[in-house]
Automatic annotation (TrEMBL):
Pfam families: FCD, GntR. It comes from Paracoccus halophilus. GO terms for molecular function: DNA binding; DNA-binding transcription factor activity. The keyword DNA-binding applies. InterPro entries: GntR_C, TF_FadR/GntR_C, Tscrpt_reg_HTH_GntR, WH-like_DNA-bd_sf, WH_DNA-bd_sf. Keywords: DNA-binding, Transcription, Transcription regulation. The lineage of its organism: Bacteria, Pseudomonadati, Pseudomonadota, Alphaproteobacteria, Rhodobacterales. Residues 16-83 form the HTH gntR-type domain. This is GntR family transcriptional regulator.
Amino acid sequence: MAKKAAGAIQSGAANVDRKQLLADALRQRILTMEIAPGAVIDEQELAEEFGLSRPPVRELMRQMAGEGYIELEANRPARATPMGHHVLRDFYLVAPLIYVATTRLAAESARPVDIARLRAVQTEFRAAIEQGDINARIFANDDFHLEIGKIARNVYLMPSLRRVLIDHARVARTYYRDDVSDREELATAAAQHDQIIDAIERRDPETAGRIVQAHMELSRRNMAAYAVPEGMEMPPGL
């Protein structure tokens, strides 16, 4: 009986590990556009690829739908969340509000250990730029702003921040240009990250908010040239 129980525990732990591997892989595939917006996600294929039964895959699908990665509708297969004009419009309207709010709050509540974590993420961001690794850069940028959200310690902002970061990553991946102007903008973005950290460390919410707004304006200029629907006016700050 004890051996059976131990075997069941080991099997359960292995299932959890495989489920986490699937979760990580699926998020990465969606963020890097390996799975395109609106594309069908085959539950059975994922179950076979990761050695899982269908129930834990379905459970993960529901979790990721709640996070904003996946769209679930009755009697229809799961799909990666679409990214049409209406989504981009909502992104451009809301993202600056979320980023500025989380950054200002972070500047009011940051502790030394928070600053250390933020600087570690920034080191990864700069390394990805130097190596020319676009996916690593996008993930590090997401981690940077997510870490700021965690420092802000506001349960109402975090779900919105996580949702914004999904489409920020996908838009950045779609409209990336490997040219001189883009590399110059990356250098500016990295410098702004450093300035944001310094302002948060000084507990200076005004400066932190102002820098992150300029940071998002840099991002807006890069993306709007390609992604903004015709005839749409861009709000200031993104």
